[in-house]
């Protein structure tokens, strides 16, 4: 009887040792399989990404060659007071790139500038050079997505008497009014340009050296802003919006602040009975009021 008892104990101990080991080995096999699948997926992803990057790199080199050829044409005409040329280049029979070359005193009579625009199927590239003796010095580069590009203009934006370069575009995503302008100010040397200033829904007033505009937001629910140029910097003068009560309804008053009204540290420093006349002339004022834009 004792022998039978001891035999049962030994059998029990044997299975208690063997079973967990088998489970452990099974879990390791599953983990290894998951890791193998993940590595395979990641390898394919990296392979595709590498292919895309290689194609982007090849396209970039092709566009660089287009720019170099345009520069060669400009160099052949560098002694002319004005030179304009438009043409198309076919890249490997895959797509065409439109090229515009413009040389002249577009920004100031003191110096000539060369503007080269390349219109590819995806993007528009703008390169500006200052004429310096018998060579061109690059002073500005801007790239814009073809889907958003509206146009570019040359005009005095900050009221210093010098013409600036402005790229206008319209946002492709989002619910609300989103007309943007990227501004490059011509510096006092009349050759080079400032950094890029981006404004949303702006109305420029060079005489006042002021920018007014409508912020991003739903019609009748957003603010207007007023900025002032300070050399190559911007001062925020004020934000203005409709006052709302606790229920979210308009009180009939206008409130003015130094910061946007979603800011927790915002401080109202003026309450007005109506919108100042200076704002009623700007582009997008009807969006601010919500007139004609029922949701």
List descriptors.
single chain, about 300 residues, alpha+beta, six-stranded antiparallel β-sheet, five-stranded antiparallel β-sheet, 15 strands, about 40% strand, globular
Provide structural commentary.
The strands form 3 sheets. Strands 10-11-12-13-14-15 form a 6-stranded antiparallel β-sheet. The protein has a 5-stranded antiparallel β-sheet with strand order 1-2-3-4-5, with helices on one face. It has helices spanning 2-76, 285-289; strands at 83-91, 95-108, 111-119, 123-132, 135-145, 149-155, 164-170, 179-186, 193-200, 202-205, 210-214, 224-229, 234-244, 250-257, 268-272. The longest helix has 75 residues, at 2-76. It is of the alpha+beta class. The radius of gyration is 32 Å and the shape is globular. It has 2 helices and 15 strands.
* Gross morphology: globular
Q: What are the low-pLDDT stretches, counting only 5+ consecutive residues below 50?
A: 18-24, 51-57
Instruction: Count helical runs.
Output: 2
SSE order: HEEEEEEEEEEEEEEEH
Helix content: 25-40%
Largest sheet: 6 strands, antiparallel
What is the strand tally?
Answer: 15
Strand content: 35-45%
Break the fold down into its secondary structure elements and pairings.
Blueprint: H1 2-76, E1 83-91, E2 95-108, E3 111-119, E4 123-132, E5 135-145, E6 149-155, E7 164-170, E8 179-186, E9 193-200, E10 202-205, E11 210-214, E12 224-229, E13 234-244, E14 250-257, E15 268-272, H2 285-289
What's a quick, concise take on this entry?
With 295 residues, this protein is of the alpha+beta class. 27% of the residues lie in helices and 41% in strands. The chain has two helices and 15 strands.
């Amino acid at each position: 009887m004792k022998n039978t008892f001891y035999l049962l104990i030994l059998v029990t101990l044997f299975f208690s040792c063997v079973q967990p080991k088998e489970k452990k080995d099974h879990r390791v096999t599953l983990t290894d399989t998951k890791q193998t699948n993940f590595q395979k997926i990641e390898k394919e992803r990296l392979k595709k990404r590498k292919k895309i990057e290689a194609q982007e790199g090849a396209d970039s080199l092709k566009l660089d060659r287009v720019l170099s050829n345009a520069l060669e044409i400009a160099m052949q005409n560098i002694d002319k007071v004005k030179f304009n040329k438009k043409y198309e280049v076919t890249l490997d029979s895959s797509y065409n790139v439109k090229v515009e070359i413009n040389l002249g005193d577009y920004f100031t009579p003191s110096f000539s500038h060369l503007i080269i625009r390349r219109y590819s199927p995806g993007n528009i590239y703008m390169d500006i050079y200052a004429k310096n003796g018998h060579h061109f010095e690059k002073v500005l580069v801007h790239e814009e997505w073809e889907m958003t590009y509206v146009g570019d203009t040359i005009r005095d934006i900050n009221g210093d008497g010098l013409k600036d370069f402005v790229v206008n575009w319209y946002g492709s995503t989002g619910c609300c009014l989103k007309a943007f302008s990227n501004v490059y100010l011509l510096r006092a040397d009349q050759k080079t340009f400032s950094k890029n200033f981006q404004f949303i829904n702006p109305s420029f007033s060079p005489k006042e050296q002021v920018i007014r505009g409508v912020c991003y937001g739903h019609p009748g629910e957003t603010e207007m802003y007023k900025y002032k140029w300070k050399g190559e910097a911007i001062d925020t003068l004020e934000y203005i919006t409709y006052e709302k009560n606790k229920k979210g309804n308009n009180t009939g008053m206008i409130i003015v602040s130094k910061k946007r009204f979603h800011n927790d540290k915002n401080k109202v420093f003026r309450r007005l009975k109506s919108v100042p006349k200076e704002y009623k002339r700007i582009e997008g004022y009807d969006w601010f009021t919500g007139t004609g834009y029922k949701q």
